[in-house]
Predict the structure.
Amino acid sequence: MTGFVSFVGAGPGDPDLLTLKAVSRLQAADVVLFDDLASGPILDCVRKGAERVAVGKRAGRPSPSQAEINRLLVEHAASGRRIVRLKSGDAGIFGRLEEEIEALVAAGADFEIIPGVSAASAAAAAARIPLTRRLRARRVQFITGHDVTGELPDNLNMAALADPGATTVVYMPKKTFPALATRLMTEGLPAETPALLAENVSHEDQCLTRGTMAKIAEMLAGGTSSTPALILYGPLLEAP
C-alpha cells in the first residue's frame, strides 16, 4: 500500500470556510472521493486532471453503499495515488469515518484526518449566537436525528437531552424532530425552550428559522423538504 488517504472536512459548503490544509490536499490529490454535500464550488479547488468520484449518500436517493466506498478507498490506495476523501462539515461528526478508517487499517493503508468547520459551529455563527453560554449553557451535545432505518434512535439518553442547561444540536432532524420533541417535553423540557432550524447553512439559500421546541416541531410535522438541516435547542442567545 503506497497510496495515502487524506480525510478532509469540507465544512458546511462555503469554500471560504475550508482550511488552508484542506485546500492544499485538494490541489495535490490524484483522486477525490466526495460526498454530495461536499461538492459544488468546493470542487473548484481540485487540481485540473484529478479524478473526481461522487460517493455521496442522501436519504431517499440512490447512492453507493458504505462497503463500496470502503472498496474504492482501498483500491485507490493500492494504486499508489494521493487520495482525498472529502466529507461535509467535520469528517469525524456523523460521517461514518470510523468505518472507512477500519477498512484502510485492515488493508495496511496510511491516512490522515484534516478537521473541518462543523455544521453545528457554522449554524451558530450564521445565527450570530454562541454554542455555549457562561453559567447557562456549560455543555454542548451533538446527536443524530435518525438511525440506519431512518427512524428516531431508540437508545437516546432522554434525561441528558432534556437538560435545560445544555445546548443540543440535532443532525439530520427533520423527519423525527416532532417525535423527539414530544419525548423531551414528556421528560420535562419546557415547550417554550428556544430552538433554531438551520437549513443549507453557509449557502446562498441559507434559511434560519427561530422558534420554540413546540413551534419548530409543529412546523416540521406539517411536512419537510430534503434540504440539509440542523436543529439547535437549549438556552440559545437571541441574535442581536
